[in-house]
Amino acid sequence: MKAKKPVAKQIKRKKISKKPPIPNKRGQKIKRRKVRIGRILLALVFLIFVVFVFSKCLEIPIRNIYIEGNVHLTDQEIIELARVENYPSIIKTSKTDIRKRLTKDPRIISAQIQKKRGKELYIKVVENHALFYHQTLNITVLADLGEIDEKWNAPILLNYIPDTIYETFKIKMQQINSDILERVSEIMYQPSNVDEERFLFIMRDGNYVYLTLETLENINNYVNIYAEFIHKYDNKKGILNLDSGQYFTLLP
Q1: Euclidean distance between the first and final Cα of the chain, in Å?
Q2: Is the pLDDT score of 110 beyond 80?
Q3: Counting Cβ atoms within 10 Å, is residue 131 exposed (0-12), middle (13-18) or buried (19+)?
Q4: Which candidate in 50, 61, 116, 152 could, as Cys together with 130 as Cys, close a disulfide (CB 3.0–4.6 Å)?
């Protein structure tokens, strides 16, 4: 008998199936996603670029500073008060901070701050103009009744005024127009037997004006009132009495 050849066993190959999605706690199937390194790197590069550009924009300095409204203060003084003399970043510079710094100074009543064209700073101030310089106390009294130890170009109060009258006098001086104050050279307290609240205003044009606290605001009409007497007295200088009535007498 012939020997039987051994028959090779046929090995059935099992199909290897993909792992089924891992169910989450709720029983829902979770799909596996491939991590794409390239996209992540691209996103990081873009983010770094954005941060770099933004940081550079933050450092853009102020190129030009424009000042408006100042009369007594120079442009440089206002720039230094605002602390922008080194032309810092236009974005980092706060308009509110500049306004606070400027109005902290007694010589400035208010300030408006604007930024334009991404590099220009506009500062508009309203100065605290002087009412008078008190020669006895060596102070200048300002429009908001603040006081500074500095002599400004203003009418000079030559002598002492009793405190009870002085406080009212300052308030009354607030009611005088700034263009009229510029015409006044000196002020003297000159009480009379009739009125202890009487003042003499010495005008820059050489005329004298008598006023009282009650009539002090009438100095605002000085130009029009004096014009009535110019032709009558041939433009001669004299004394305009506004303390009681309204009449003009020539100087001796």
Answers
A1: 173
A2: yes
A3: buried
A4: 152
- pLDDT-derived band at 45, boundaries 50, 70, 90: confident
Contact 106, 81 (CB under 8 A): no
Are 225 and 217 in contact, with CB atoms under 8 Å apart? no
Residue 155 CA to chain centroid, in angstroms? 27
* DSSP H helices in the chain: 37-58, 75-82, 95-104, 163-173, 178-181, 222-230
Beta bridge partners of 114: 122
Q: Give the pair of three-digit tokens for residue 193.
A: 């037997």
Q: Fill in the amino acid letter for 90.
A: I
Pairing of the two strands 147-148 and 156-157: unpaired
Q: What is the C-alpha to C-alpha distance for residues 164 and 14, in angstroms, rounded to an integer?
A: 115
CB 127 within 8 A of CB 139: no
Compute the distance between CA of residue 132 and CA of residue 154 in angstroms, rounded to an integer.
5
